[in-house]
Amino acid sequence: MFRFSRRAAAAVSIVAISAAAAGGVGAATRSSDEAALAPARQPADRAIEKRVNKLLKKMTLEEKLNQLTLLSDGQMKENPAEARKPVGAVFSEVDPAKIRAYQQDAVENSRLGIPILFAYDTIHGFRTIFPIPLGAASSFDPAVATDDHFFGARESAAVGLKQIYSPMVDVSHEPRWGRISEAGGEDPYLNSVFAAARVKAAQGGDYSARDKVVTSVKHYAAYGQPEGGRDYGTTDMSEQRLRNLYLPPFKAAIDAGSDTVMCSFNAINGVPGCAHRRLETDVLKREWGFDGFVESDYTAVAELRSCPPRIPDEGSCGHGVAGDGPEAAARALRAGTDSEMVSTFFRDYGEELVAEGRVSMRRIDDAVRRILRVKFRAGLFENPYSQFTPEQAKAEMLKPDAVAAARKAAGRSMVLLKNDGAPATLPLDPGKKTAVIGPLGNSERDMVGPWWGRGDDNSPADIVTPFEGIAAQSAGATFTEGCKVSRTEPPHDDAEGCGAEANFADAVAAAEAADQVVLALGESREMSGEAAVRSVLDLPGRQEELIAAIKATGKPFVVVLFNGRPLALENIVDTAPAILEAWFPGVQAGNAVADVVFGQVNPGGKLPASFPRRVGQVPIYYNHEPTGRPCDVNSKYNSRYRDLPYCGPLYEFGFGLSYTTFEVTNLALSSQSVARSGRVTASVDVANTGSRAGDEVVQLYINDPVAKISQPVRRLRGFQRVTLAPGEKRTLTFTLDRSDWGFYDNKGRFVVEPGRIDVYAGNSSRASLRQSFRVRR
Ligand code: NOJ
């Protein structure tokens, strides 16, 4: 219980802050699949603190500085002797035999036998790859996040890993930014719910369990909002935005027990994440009571220097907040970064910094203590190796339960954006002859997205392509590529592929020879993820022309999109009769696509980020503040684009259709007036008014119309995904409290003001049912 009580003690002065994040997340998990989640906290363990202190006393400064060092698989290969120093941690080594050998060297051949912490980016699966996190968020089902981290942890631990650099919880209003694919989109609440579910699933109640790992929530902080969407770019934002939009998912992950955190590359108001004392020490460690450790991102400590660095062979540089390596190390350590990834300035200059009094021995000890604490909690001193031999570990991959969960998750993550026609175009009849056409139609590699883990390890056959999945359910299906999307790294051709080589004649012939067409379009996996920023959000290359060519055949067709970001679909929305957003669905992509396209699974996902009509509207997001001149396309002096005849996005946050229809009615509140720290229950009815069973996500938003600082026009504060039979009706309830209607001000205080609160319910962020209550003085 000590972690509980430590945090409770730390929270006394910031009761409102704790209530905000914890209450917010609690409210949602109450309404989701909580039973599947393990208890969040590590058990109280005074004994661990004793062991940490005892070990620390025996360590030389050199040994301590090695513990602060985190090396890549490549660095270890160059110098395997690092293992017996031993370094604190190693990342990206996934060969179980090598992990075992390094660990053996550390445990048996170093003076104190301190085990190494092996880490990996298990973001949405290790070998059994689930949908990308943006896709998983579309499910509005925390059980999807639970599954991807439960199985991801199990497979990671089997090869000897004990830490994962996940969950990635960077709220983002930037679809140009390729890393929007890695987290849960534009809403802090949705990201918080998913973050907590992932931490609990990967760590369990006690991450010393042999199939569990410690999580590292990243990238701390506000990495999702770089200027212009350019990766690693600077971020300048108010305290209230930082606290209300970007920090809540981190707090939720810490409250769920995440014992490590990764600081971010970007600067926030001029101070890089890994040198940000206020964020790392004041907020994370003091205010939130975090007693685990913070590792830097890749060379982020070296990047604190200006370019070119004073000592040229020191490598990466950039932010210009430190003149040289020693200064960079001192800034990062003093800020609260405990472990340094890839660059080794802590180790190289630590002794001199301590001798000169620029970094205190107490701070070094604090960092080492945090790292050892996590290693003891992880049970590494008792069980430094995987429970499986390297041979046995192979058998732990892609087990049937994991593969079945990945297929289910992919189906639940798909969002039906359009389904015109009478009868509606989707679902298709599997008994008819189906032509799968398009550059993504038979691609294995793209299906696993930009963090594919070991998803395509020597065995692309593990990945089911859209064509393979469709052919398995529709006899005689054909595949024609039509054109190729670009897979090159920058600098690349402007057309992003699907260019001059495009063979639309073959595609047209294939469509003509079939009864119906599934057009598999979108982005290659290289187009999203880290350092994959796009300045155009349309379908890359000539894919829009391919749609037009297929439409001209007169055959019924649907567009299935595979992509890692919101796209601007203005040019295709009128051409395509049906559009299904499949994201990058993972190893079971094809089966899940076929399940949805042929109606075995009725799509119920909702967008976790707004889809603009055109890139020029970006950033465009539902939770924006109001303005004195709201958009009005019929007059001039207001907040609009001169060249756009509409105000909002093409598809809003929370939007998604189904093969059936739903009605959300009867929003009612338990009370019209509530004390500041009271509770209000909202109830709302949802009914399936169509003729098929299906899923609806009922969403609850609030707005504080009069506050001392402008409040977002809507804020999501609850959601529930329910499955209803035709004609079935259910009443859902949501509980709201001060953590929902309060907000952070620009001094970083959580405030709860008296006054009216509007509550909206419906099935997207345009929810129209409204009721109000008053918060009393
Ligand atoms: C850099 C990325 O920003 C981070 O997300 C990742 O965990 C590290 N590289 C390690 O791979």
Number of helices: 22
From the alpha carbons, calculate the radius of gyration and give it in angstroms: 26 Å
Helix content: 25-40%
Quaternary = single chain
Ends apart, CA distance between termini: 36 Å
Q: Which residues sit in consecutive blocks of at least 5 with pLDDT less than 50?
A: 1-41
Q: Name the hetero compounds present.
A: 1-deoxynojirimycin
- Coarse shape: globular
Q: Major sheet: size, sense and barrel closure?
A: 8 strands, parallel
The structure class reads alpha/beta
What strand order characterises the main sheet? 9-6-5-4-3-2-1-10
Average pLDDT, all residues: 92
SSE topology:
Layout: H1 2-11, H2 15-30, H3 46-58, H4 61-67, E1 69-72, H5 73-78, E2 89-91, H6 96-109, E3 117-120, H7 133-138, H8 142-158, E4 163-164, H9 188-203, E5 214-220, H10 239-246, H11 248-255, E6 260-263, E7 267-268, E8 271-272, H12 277-287, E9 293-295, H13 325-335, E10 340-341, H14 345-355, H15 361-377, H16 390-395, H17 400-413, E11 415-419, E12 434-437, H18 466-473, E13 478-480, H19 504-512, E14 516-522, H20 543-552, E15 557-562, E16 578-581, H21 589-597, E17 662-669, E18 673-674, E19 679-688, E20 694-703, E21 715-724, E22 729-737, H22 738-741, E23 743-744, E24 750-751, E25 755-762, E26 769-775
Parallel strand pairs: 1-2, 1-10, 2-3, 3-4, 4-5, 5-6, 6-9, 12-13, 12-14, 14-15, 15-16, 18-26
Antiparallel strand pairs: 7-8, 11-16, 17-19, 19-22, 20-21, 20-25, 23-24, 25-26
Helix pairs in contact: 2-9, 2-11, 3-15, 4-14, 8-9, 8-17, 9-11, 13-14, 17-21, 18-21
The protein binds 1-deoxynojirimycin (NOJ).
